[in-house]
Design brief:
Layout lengths: L22 H14 L1 H8 L3 H19 L4 H17 L3 H9 L4 H10 L6
Length: about 120
């Protein structure tokens, strides 16, 4: 019976983007992706294969969108959100790489304060 079959809701990171995003829309989309992927990141930290795959897809899409942001501070803030997501998933290698891409000193200091293990 197809009537009662559940349809899985599409994840926000799997939705197609209609046309180019402006910096503000891109930053908002990254924020929404990171918020939606928080549970998957926690599952990835527990070695849950399904949640790990969801986290990796979400992080990849968020990074691709962040690369297209032209404003430096907006991009740094978006990357900060992605670093937080990576740290939630215990993905230290990716978080360190993204941390080095941040130019704003006050955002770097905030990340260092929030995630001291990132600098080891």
């Amino acid at each position: 019976m197809k009537w009662f079959a559940r349809q899985n809701a599409a994840d926000i990171w799997d939705e197609t983007i209609e046309g180019p995003l402006g910096d503000i829309e891109a930053a908002a989309r990254i924020r929404a992706i990171c918020e939606a992927a928080a549970l998957s990141a926690a599952g990835s930290a527990r070695n849950d294969k399904r949640e790990s795959g969801r986290y990796e897809r979400a992080a990849k899409v968020a990074m691709e969108i962040a690369m297209k942001i032209s404003d430096g501070l907006m991009r740094d803030d978006a990357v900060h959100r992605i670093v937080d997501l990576c740290m939630m998933a215990n993905d230290l290698k990716t978080a360190q790489i993204l941390f080095r891409a941040i130019h704003a000193s006050w955002i770097r200091e905030t990340i260092q304060r929030d995630h001291p293990t990132l600098l080891q």
